[in-house]
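Hey team,

Sharing the Neuropeptide receptor 22-like run so nobody has to redo it. Sequence (159 residues) first:
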Amino acid sequence: MADPSWLDKNNITSVRLKTSTGTVEIGQLEAFGLFGQTFLVILYSLSTFFALTGNTLVILVEIYGRRSARNLQKFLINLAISDLLLGVLVTPFIYTDIMLGRWIFHPLLCPVTQFVQLMSVFVTTYTLTFIGIERYVIFFFEFFGLTYKKKRKYRNSDF
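Structure output:
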């Protein structure tokens, strides 16, 4: 088992509330209240669940289905994988950080989580951009009746 010496249990963020009867010190997790905690747990759990199931279904449909164009299929699978990374590998860490108000995991996981989050958002943004460009080009060629023909280097009579 790993040595959890990096986790300093004495350094806990707390909130002090002044009331008419005196000052009450509560932990950061309790600062949200029961309704806030319940709401955040349900929100993040549903978000992670739908990210996992929805994107897995998209990947399966795109792999085994034959309806979308081959180019678009690659983009949609790429988009679903980046959303899976964000929903499964990043969301639980963000949830824990928000609820507790501090990072409780190994210090090495903090930059790794940030990298995965930034990479996933980057891939999602560029995938959506490329889908838009590809759809525009297809529309442009169809609308104006243009065709793309490869120029042959040799004619049939050359062989």
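Residues 109-143 form the longest helix (35 residues).

Ping me if you want the raw files.
A.
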